[in-house]
Design goal:
The complex is a heterotrimer.
Chain A: E1 4-17, E2 27-40, E3 44-48, H1 55-62, E4 70-75, E5 78-79, H2 86-94, E6 95-98, H3 112-123, H4 128-141, H5 158-170, E7 176-180, H6 188-205, E8 208-213, H7 216-222, E9 225-230, E10 233-239, H8 240-245, H9 250-258, H10 300-304, E11 310-313, E12 316-318, E13 324-326, E14 329-331, H11 333-340
Parallel strand pairs in A: 3-8, 3-9, 6-7, 7-8
Antiparallel strand pairs in A: 1-2, 1-4, 4-5, 9-10, 10-12, 11-12, 13-14
Helix pairs in contact in A: 3-4, 3-5, 4-5, 5-6
Chain B: E1 7-16, E2 23-33, E3 38-42, H1 49-56, E4 65-74, E5 77-78, H2 84-93, E6 95-98, H3 102-105, H4 112-124, H5 128-141, H6 147-150, H7 160-172, E7 178-182, H8 190-207, E8 210-215, H9 218-224, E9 227-232, E10 235-241, H10 242-247, H11 252-259, E11 313-316, E12 319-321
Parallel strand pairs in B: 3-8, 3-9, 6-7, 7-8
Antiparallel strand pairs in B: 1-2, 1-4, 4-5, 9-10, 10-12, 11-12
Chain C: H1 13-23, H2 25-47, H3 79-115, H4 117-132, H5 135-145, H6 150-160, H7 163-176, H8 180-187, H9 192-228, H10 239-245, H11 255-282, H12 284-287
Helix pairs in contact in C: 1-11, 2-3, 2-11, 3-4, 3-6, 3-7, 3-9, 3-10, 3-11, 4-7, 5-6, 6-9, 7-9, 9-10, 9-11, 10-11
Chain lengths: 342, 331, 290
């Protein structure tokens, strides 16, 4: 294992939301509740979850776009959540972000070349000539022609706009790039182009990715490690191989089985684990396991006692009461349940 | 093909603008549907999927668009010959449609119940208590818990999945023969998507509707549809039984669409190989094109592909493809 | 390949808007009209160097080709000379009052919208306070507190009419600051000044420019109202002053009031037409139509 570059420990992000009645206690939205995550240098961690699971809030907390309530975020042993002034500038350089929406993430009144240059201008990296040269180099690296620097964002297609986004993130030569659903707003045929570009850049520049997505297949393609979030908590964390060959948490299993597959055809829906309802609100999460109200195999203790994240196999942790260790390997009761209900 | 079809579309063309600014958004689109069949339409955005649906509903925005040629025959009646009054009657009663974003399709200032009741009054002449009873029954049929209370809820009080269920309830209120679903789950989470597809499937079986499902997801096509129509650049480039098309995709665009998406079946070990890309982007509808619209992105392009559009060729049981690679000879 | 088929240097959105503006007939008419009025105000006094306060004929002479082309007022001053010389003051007050109001409005609105929270609360309460004051009465108070000069009049008009701009700016900022390209600036560590003035404000400008244009028209009318009530600068000829000083004779000697009134009407009309044209040119929804 290589050295960790980013360590998140017990991160909590709570938002206070005022109610209409000014005398009432403000509601507390527990967007992220005690999340710990380690990113190793040169690896890609896939953070998976549905909308409202808190995955984007984790990313924004790393970049300090939202204030953290508790916990720590360390980049190479420097506390990011306590920094201010010049030191935080250097760390801003080292972590960059690729946004989901290639349309709203580019300032419509600024030329593409100046957008890519803006991190260099703001962080005062290099002189004018070297910045211009760097912009040309970046345009070529992401598959755009340097002559296109003078165009405005609306003159590019969605895929090309995402390339501009990637070039801007690469500009200050970061160590870590957070990709927040970088292909979900793009057309299917364009997604492969962008995913391949991200993979190529990772190989060439030894970048670490935190790859946020709701698409299990994309995460399987991109990530070395997978963390699944549900309602502000990590419910399962494992290396890619062990996660996709034997997912343990009932929610992970349901997520994987909900993906429609080309190879299975109309039979694909037959063996599906069906979840009823929507995720409950993070304002008043259930007292026990947060997934219990939707879990097909939940027992009474699941509704009362919140489970801890337990490491049940090497580097494979699960937040579930019901996983047992049988003969040295963890076994999920879900598989038996599926067999019985088919 | 059978005479007792549900829907038959022949030579459908839709144009936008005029003169020098003329764009052919749909070009000679043709396909058929049997009753109770699920037909998938797949392609990237800007390929004419949604426009085909709007043309069937005769809702092509006019101006600047208009249906310039073709026939759309629903159960023996050519919809393009119908009067506007007749068409209003057909929409809702015989064909219904649900859209991608259920929030924008529902009026935020009225309760969902009043919006369901309104369509029941309009199409079935039900009113008051009868409309309410039928509305609650419909909400129950689409799997909304405690439908009595949800009847009086406003759209923003429901989750995205619940709103899409409401849209489905409104769509099936008049027992249409044909339901068109335009990317009905794109705005929803994957577990909720599975619920909506289960619901659509069971409603279709219970009521014997035809279903047209527009999507860009080949997995959805594989799981949900009997037949599939692949569109590119306003044209149908391949169509056939879903099984055949996915097992033996004949058009380079179909092959690209199937291959370029990462899937869970791919080998998970080691460093993943690059995904096969379809280079370039969908051409703008304003770019005048002769020949095959896919020629610029095609990896097996022939010299004459850019000169003439190939005709649809039968290559299997009701499996058609429009590609020079599968034609005998050349123009 | 949408970007590949186009020239490699894009047209700046501002230039594109100006091109749209030049194509709108309404805007061109308004622009020509305002240009003529400004030319009259700037060049006219050089062509007619006579003092507008000089008595040239019998008081309240009707328009005639012999004495005064547009007649004289109750003190025998030439109405035409007054119109030619009064344009400068009217336009200067209108422009500078609009400028003052827009500057206050944008600053208050931008700070309130960007920072939100307590700052927003306080600034919005202040804005509401100014909104509920009767504007004309308040500016009368301000003008009478100081000596009525063009400067104090412009400042007092600006000080009471900035609230609409502030609310508009705040609304634009609230909308824009949530967009990802603003978050992208935070990610690269841009300072608050750069984000407010360099990133958000340029994107908020289109509706603000339109509202500023209409503010000029309002300010000109405001100046006329103050002068009408006798609160104008008595030592500078302006259209408002002409109307104000001749208001008692409106029934017997229509010309002394009507001609300056027409000038005010034409100026405000021209400014409104330009505003409409700008609105069409800057509105992205309209611009997307081919």
């Amino acid at each position: 294992m290589t050295a960790p570059i980013l360590e998140i420990k017990d991160l909590q992000v709570h938002f206070r939301r005022r109610r209409l009645n000014p005398l009432a206690q403000p509601e507390v939205v527990r967007a992220v509740d005690r999340v710990s995550l380690t990113l190793n240098r040169g690896q890609t961690v896939g953070l998976v979850g549905e909308s409202g699971s808190g995955k984007t809030t984790v990313a924004r907390a790393i970049l300090r776009l939202v204030p953290t309530t508790a916990g720590s975020i360390e980049l190479d042993n420097t506390r990011l959540d306590e920094l201010s002034g010049g030191r935080s500038h250097e760390n801003r350089r080292r972590i960059q972000y690729i946004f989901q929406d290639p349309y709203s993430s580019l300032n419509p009144r600024v030329r593409a070349g100046d957008i890519v240059r803006s991190p260099l201008d703001v962080m005062n990296i290099g002189d004018q000539a070297s910045r211009d040269a760097r912009v040309s180099e970046l345009f070529e690296a992401v598959g755009l022609r340097p002559e296109q620097r003078g165009l405005f964002p609306h003159q590019f297609s969605g895929g090309q706009r995402q390339r501009i986004n990637i070039a801007r993130a690469l500009a200050p030569d970061p160590d870590l790039i957070i990709c927040d659903e970088p292909v979900s707003a793009l057309d299917v045929a364009i997604r492969a182009q962008i995913l391949n570009l991200l993979q190529r850049l990772k190989r060439q520049r030894a970048i670490t990715y935190l790859f946020i997505s709701h698409d299990m297949a994309v995460v399987k393609h991109m990530a070395d490690e997978v963390a699944v979030m549900y309602l502000g908590q990590i419910v399962e964390k494992a290396p890619r191989r062990s996660f996709f060959s034997a997912p343990l948490h009932p929610y992970s299993q349901a997520l994987l089985s909900a993906v429609p597959r080309v190879g299975v055809g109309t039979a694909g829906s037959a063996g599906r684990i069906r979840l009823s309802g929507d995720p409950p609100s993070p304002i008043a999460p259930p007292p026990g396991c947060r997934f219990a109200p939707r879990c097909p195999i939940a027992e009474s203790r699941c509704h009362q006692l919140p489970p801890e994240l337990r490491e049940l196999a090497p580097a494979h942790s699960v937040r579930c009461h019901l996983i047992e260790n049988r003969g040295g390997a963890p076994v999920s009761p879900m598989s038996e349940w599926v067999a019985k209900h088919d | 093909m059978t005479a007792a079809g549900l829907l038959r579309i022949e030579g459908l063309s839709v144009e936008f603008g005029s003169g020098d600014n003329l764009a052919r958004v749909l070009n000679d689109v043709a396909f058929e549907m049997k009753p109770r069949e699920t037909l998938g339409i797949v392609g990237e955005s800007g390929c004419g999927k949604s426009m085909t649906a709007l043309a069937i509903m005769r809702l092509v925005p006019n101006p600047p668009g208009r249906i310039s040629a073709g026939r759309i025959v629903l159960g023996g009646e050519d919809l393009l010959q119908a009067t506007d009054a007749r068409m209003r009657d057909i929409r809702g009663n015989r064909i219904a449609m649900i859209f991608q974003e259920p929030m924008t399709s529902l009026n935020p200032v009225f309760t969902v119940g009043s919006q369901i009741a309104e369509s029941l009054t309009l199409h079935l002449g039900l009113s008051g208590a009868a409309a309410r009873a039928r509305g609650v029954e419909l909400l129950k049929a689409v799997g909304i818990p405690s439908p009595e209370q949800r009847f009086d809820a406003y759209p923003h009080q429901l989750s995205g999945g619940m709103r899409q269920r409401v849209m489905i309830a409104m769509a099936i209120a008049c027992e249409p023969e044909l339901l068109i679903a335009d990317e009905p789950t794109t705005a929803l989470d994957v577990t909720v998507q599975a619920q909506i597809f289960d619901l659509l499937r069971s409603i279709q079986q219970a009521r014997g509707m035809g279903l047209i499902l527009i999507t860009h997801d080949m997995g959805v096509i594989a799981e949900m549809t009997d037949r599939v129509v692949v569109m590119y650049g306003g044209r149908v480039v391949e169509q056939g039984a879903t099984r055949d098309v996915l097992a033996r995709p004949a058009h380079p665009y179909t092959r690209g669409l199937v291959a370029c998406v990462p899937t869970l079946e791919m080998d998970g070990d080691g460093e993943p190989a690059d995904l096969p890309e379809i280079p370039g982007v969908v051409p703008s509808i304003w770019e005048l094109q002769t020949g095959c619209p896919f020629a610029d992105r095609c990896n097996v392009v022939l010299p004459w592909c850019r000169q003439e559009m190939p005709a649809a060729t039968l290559i299997g049981v009701a499996h058609w493809v429009a590609c020079w690679q599968r034609q005998e000879g050349r123009p | 390949m949408s970007a590949n088929s186009r020239p490699a240097h894009g047209e700046h959105p501002t230039r594109e808007a100006l091109r749209m503006f030049a194509r709108s007939p309404v805007a061109v008419v308004g622009f020509a009209l305002l240009g003529a009025i400004v030319a009259l105000a700037l060049l006219g006094p050089m062509l007619m160097p006579a003092d507008p306060f000089d008595i040239v004929a019998a008081p309240l002479s009707p328009p005639s080709f012999q004495e005064a082309l547009l007649g004289t007022d109750q003190q025998g001053r030439d109405v035409l000379t007054g119109i030619v010389h009064g344009g400068r003051a009217t336009l200067a007050v209108g422009l500078s009052a609009a400028l003052v109001s827009v500057l206050i409005g944008i600053t208050v609105g931008a700070i309130a919208g960007f920072f939100g929270g307590t700052i927003d609360e306080i600034l919005m309460r202040v804005t509401e306070f100014f909104q509920v004051l009767p504007a004309l009465l308040f500016s009368m108070v301000l003008v009478t507190l100081f000596t009525p000069t063009l400067m104090t009049i412009a400042l007092s008009i600006g000080a009471v009419s900035w609230t609409a701009t502030a609310r508009l700016t705040r609304a634009e900022f609230l909308k824009l600051k949530e967009l990802d390209f603003v978050a992208a600036e935070h990610v690269i560590g841009a300072g608050k000044g750069r984000i407010i003035w360099g990133v958000i404000l340029p994107n908020a400008l289109p509706p603000l420019i339109v509202s500023a244009t209409f503010a000029i028209g309002t300010a000109i009318l405001f100046e006329a109202s103050l002068s009408f009530l006798g609160l104008g600068d008595p030592n500078r000829m302006s259209w408002g002053l002409m109307i104000g000083s001749s208001r008692s004779y409106i029934l017997s000697s229509w010309w002394a009031v009507t001609f300056p009134g027409c000038m005010i009407f034409l100026t405000v009309l021209a400014v409104s037409l330009i505003g409409d044209g700008l609105n069409d040119a800057l509105n992205p929804k309209l611009r997307e139509r081919r």
